[in-house]
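// run 5 | inverse folding | seed 20
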């Protein structure tokens, strides 16, 4: 791994984009390494929560400019393959059975904002975090992330960010529902650590089943959603965590 730092701290996997000299800009190598690292954390029996962060002053400034220049020389098939890699990595983060927290200490722009968007929780520093989709300014579009963004904040707000290419601070991002929580910059590390530890204390199977439902229910009809929910309810009752939890409850513990 050249562009990703990985560390397991008990039940918490810390995944850090490590190109601070490039503001953690996305390249095919970084995206590929990120995919492998998230897969590693997801498969670890010891890991209960994943924290995604960026080294240096930026969370992620989007695509690497030198890389963008090379895209013009790619063939259709090469561009399709490159796009598929990004799509699969974002989907991997979004559908990971373990909660994923984005710790945003600085700018999260374009593809970097996309990375934050697909995480379950986004905790950001009040004064230095910045969010926005700037792609239309250079003739590009945030095509893949748009699918997730509309699901997260709705059509009207997504149009504002994508078509307007507006840069917004952490407090406005929280108001729009793009991020989960704003804290003072000096409190960011502690706030993320506290959230991660709290999530790690929950039932792993219940979190995984809940995430699966959250990802699947949107778009279902009322009848289909209720039928799906009924089957998932039955599955949850049969898990070891649920059986042990009920036993503890009945025992007054």
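// decoded
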């Amino acid at each position: 791994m050249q562009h990703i730092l990985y560390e397991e701290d008990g039940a918490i996997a810390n995944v850090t984009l490590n190109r601070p000299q490039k503001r953690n800009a996305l390249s095919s190598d970084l995206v590929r390494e990120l995919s492998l690292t998230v897969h590693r954390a997801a498969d670890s029996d010891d890991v209960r929560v994943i924290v995604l962060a960026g080294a240096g002053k930026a969370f992620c400034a989007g695509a690497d400019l030198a890389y963008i220049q090379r895209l013009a020389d790619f063939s259709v098939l090469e561009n399709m393959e490159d796009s598929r890699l990004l799509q699969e990595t974002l989907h991997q983060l979004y559908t990971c059975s373990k909660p994923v927290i984005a710790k945003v200490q600085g700018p999260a722009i374009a593809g970097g904002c996309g990375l934050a968007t697909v995480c379950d929780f986004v905790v950001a520093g009040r004064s230095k975090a910045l969010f926005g989709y700037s792609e239309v300014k250079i003739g590009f579009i945030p095509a893949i992330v748009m699918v997730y963004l509309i699901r997260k904040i709705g059509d009207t707000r997504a149009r504002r960010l994508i078509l307007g290419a507006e840069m917004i601070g952490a407090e406005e991002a929280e108001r729009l529902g793009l991020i989960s929580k704003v804290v003072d910059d000096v409190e960011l590390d502690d706030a993320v650590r506290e959230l991660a530890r709290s999530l790690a204390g929950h039932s792993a199977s219940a979190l995984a089943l809940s995430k699966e439902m959250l990802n699947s229910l949107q778009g279902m009809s009322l009848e289909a959603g209720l039928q799906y929910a009924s089957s998932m309810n039955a599955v949850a009752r049969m898990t070891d965590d649920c059986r042990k939890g009920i036993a503890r409850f009945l025992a007054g513990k």
